[in-house]
Amino acid sequence: MTSETVRLTQTVKGAGCAAKLSPGELDRALCGLDLPVDPNLLVGLDRADDAGVYRVSDDLALVQTIDFFPPMVDDPYSFGQIAAANALSDVYAMGGTPKTAMNIVAFPAKTMDISVLRLVIEGGLDKMREAGVVLVGGHTVEDSELKYGLSVTGYIHPDRILTKRNLQCGDCLVLTKPIGTGIVATAIKAGLAGRGVTDRVTRAMATLNRAAALVMRDFPVHACTDITGFGFLGHLAEMVVDSGHGVRIRGADVPIYPEALEWAAMGLIPAGAYNNRSFRGPFVDFAPEVARSVQDLLFDPQTSGGLLIAVSADAAERLVDALRANGVEAAVIVGEVVAEPVERIIVE
Amino acid sequence: MVNELDCRGLSCPAPVLQVRDLLSNETPDTIAVRVDNDAARQNVSRFLEHQNYRVHFEVQGSEFRIVGTRGEGVGVPAAAFVPGAAQKPETGAGKIMVLVTSTHMGHGDDGLGDMLMFNFLKTLKEMGPDLWRVVFVNSGVSFTAEGSEAVPVLQELAANGVHVSACGACLAYFHILDKLQVGEVTNMLEIVTGMKDAGSVVTL
């Protein structure tokens, strides 16, 4: 297959972040492992945040992350852009500035023309340029399915790390991109998604979280994560666990691609959404009026989703205005941190 | 007669597509589908319920047998989900693009103008298959958002294959980007290229 004829989503089993190992299984693999200890490791595996942070000096720490996955769109260049935007996002979610990156590639050289790989990497480079990141190397293996992503290193001040775990009672939760990329990707794979919605969602997935991350630096933000494979509620649950607070979400305020609601109702839901629900569902109480398709969407694994930002309530409206003024047009307040019920998520 | 479909060994979205293909040719009173993973079970169940079947399932070892029994009334025709069925041909002389730039039609009394515009949108379907696109810009975008009585009217147009879209920058300007109820978000490039591709453009 050449780059003109290949439909990448038809060559792989899982799509994008929907291909992620289920969170329950990952937990079983990692729990109880004897991890090396280092006082300069400020954020490590034991806290399972978006990226690891290692202190180099009093005013400099490294942020490191890696992400790669099989294609969720058919166009190789767009896939490269999306995979890179998704990998860079973890550094933005920590409040850091990405600086260097390495390609990680699995390529089916026996069945796919090498020109496809060139386009994928060109797409990745496009996003690295936009992010001000330099490519310093990479590693490619032959595999049965195409996979692409980046290992990214960035800077951060050790006192300005934004983790998932600092929710304050009364904080507003701001989401910066609509939800539904996993279901849309499933519809693309099924050949049901028209060009309009495919282009719109592809653009959103290829959009860096850079602008959102730069804007939030000027606001009293307490916690942040990016929404990827565990879905909106899965990542929110990670913020809520051990926080001592609860969260109230207004389901109707969560921005959702309208087409995805219809596709969810007809059962075009990636297996990852069901895995996410069985792992984190016990933390969530849905009001009876929240439609099942909306519930499915809230667990839908996202590829290169938006940032979920916990910000002081009195600054939340200004943050949303500033985000929209800087091109983050979908930014919206979706809920707030409450005292009760502790460590539960209520969706109304 | 029970239609039995074997979708074992298939991963999402293949089982749903197989059931859809079967139901687009016939509407059996009972349909049974075998799958071997829970995601496929839930997806096929959702699809059958969406097609107005009552659904239950049997567990058989690590496999599932989903049985759907046709309910009263009519579901959404499966053919509505045939790829491209809802899309108009991308070329053709009769393609009309309607650009709605305001909440009211014409100048004079705005109350009258509002009434006229709503009436215009309701009557638009009479253009028939020549109606290709309806694009909303400036305050016109409010027709596509929550709270507008035009939403069901536009949904009907969209269901009939008309491409309905609203300017993203305008939705953001009026803070209703998240309230979009019908159609797709569009941008100036798409609007301009749409004008080029259209047979004629009607601006209001």
Oligomer: heterodimer
Major sheet of chain A: 7 strands, mixed
Largest sheet of chain B: 5 strands, parallel
The portion of residues forming beta strands of chain A comes to 15-25%
User: What is the count of distinct domains of chain B?
Assistant: 2
Question: Structural class of the secondary structure composition of chain A?
Answer: alpha+beta
Output the CATH class name of the largest domain in chain B. Answer: Alpha Beta
CATH superfamily of the largest domain in chain A: PurM-like C-terminal domain
Layout of strands and helices, then pairs:
The complex is a heterodimer of chains A (348) and B (204).
Chain A: H1 23-30, E1 41-43, E2 52-57, E3 60-69, H2 76-93, E4 97-107, H3 114-131, E5 134-142, E6 147-156, E7 172-175, H4 181-189, H5 195-206, H6 210-216, E8 221-226, H7 231-240, E9 246-249, H8 258-265, H9 271-280, E10 284-286, H10 292-299, E11 307-311, H11 313-325, E12 332-338, E13 345-347
Parallel strand pairs in A: 4-5, 9-13, 10-13
Antiparallel strand pairs in A: 1-2, 2-3, 3-6, 4-6, 7-11, 7-12, 8-11, 9-12
Helix pairs in contact in A: 2-3, 2-5, 4-5, 4-8, 7-9, 8-10
Chain B: E1 2-6, H1 14-25, E2 30-35, H2 38-50, E3 53-60, E4 63-70, E5 96-100, H3 110-123, E6 131-136, H4 151-159, E7 163-167, H5 168-173, E8 184-186, H6 188-197, E9 200-203
Parallel strand pairs in B: 1-2, 5-6, 5-9, 6-7, 7-8
Antiparallel strand pairs in B: 2-4, 3-4
